[in-house]
Amino acid sequence: xxxGIKIIELPAEDWQRFAGANSCQNxxxxxxxxxxxxxxxxxxxFPWTAFAGRYGPLGHRLKPYVExxxxxxxxxxxxxxxxxxxxxxxxxxxxxxxxxHTGLVVxxxxxxxxxxxxxxxxxxxxxxxxxxLTEAAQFDxxxxxxxxxxxxxxxxxxxxxxLAGHPVARRSCDDRCHAVLFWRDGRSIxxxxxxxxxxxxxxxxxxxxxxxxxxxxxxxLF
Length: 222
Known about the structure:
This protein is α+β, with helices and mostly antiparallel strands.
């Protein structure tokens, strides 16, 4: 079991599929000695599952990642296997490394598969077509009374920027700041938190449309 972990960067729209394949809860709740049933996502023709990850804002120095495992049919795996997700006895004996699931037998789509290769899939910027500043501003305004905006940045100032064509809103309040990139994944608009100082932004263009009380009004973006 090697200590080196291969790192592959995926655009945000693909990375989300692997975040959705995180099966750590399935493993934690699993009872009995049989294999854990896992969720999967496909990459380069192989199914992958995940049991761990790091989430949070995206930067150059620190990126969200999913620790994923390439799955192969049990009959094709050349090494020793085990159906036990956390083998404390084997770990104490030095037969397995803590957190290393190489050789773990799982059930994926009804088939017995084995964790064969560990990879960190890191999140990159989305490569989808950027939404307009108008769409981003309208989405931001619609959600202003909810979640982190109302809890931590209720009276914050907003500055708008562009990153790779995607609108970015930076909220500042006292000595705190929170930057969010807006992008579209299918039909829904998504938010991606950024480590602001890690990126070089373009100034946003003025004249986008914001909605207030159902009526559009002009406001300046700098």
